């Protein structure tokens, strides 16, 4: 049924391809590669790490603007 909509179901332990992961989260290739290296192959862990990284960047930017 997922194939009817072009949605691919991925296994939890099926690792991401670096460029698709970078595009999905708006990361640079080196940052995406570092996240995947540190947290792979767990897709859940990689996704959580990407979101945590983006939140940290946003918090840092907010702190810099406040100064």
Would you write up a description of this structure?
- The chain is mainly alpha-helical and 67 residues long.
- It contains 3 helices and no strands.
- The radius of gyration is 15 Å and the shape is elongated.
- Helix 1 packs across helix 2 and helix 2 crosses helix 3.
- The chain has one domain.
Please give the alpha-carbon distance between the first and last residues: 52 Å
Number of helices, where a helix is a run of at least 4 consecutive DSSP H or I residues: 3
Q: What is the number of independent domains?
A: 1
Biggest beta-sheet profile: none
Question: What does the secondary structure layout of this molecule look like, with pairings?
Answer:
Blueprint: H1 18-25, H2 29-39, H3 43-66
Q: Which descriptors would you attach to this protein?
A:
mainly alpha, 64% helix, single chain
Short structural summary:
With 67 residues, the chain is mainly alpha-helical. Helices cover 64% and strands 0% of the residues. The longest helix has 24 residues, at 43-66.
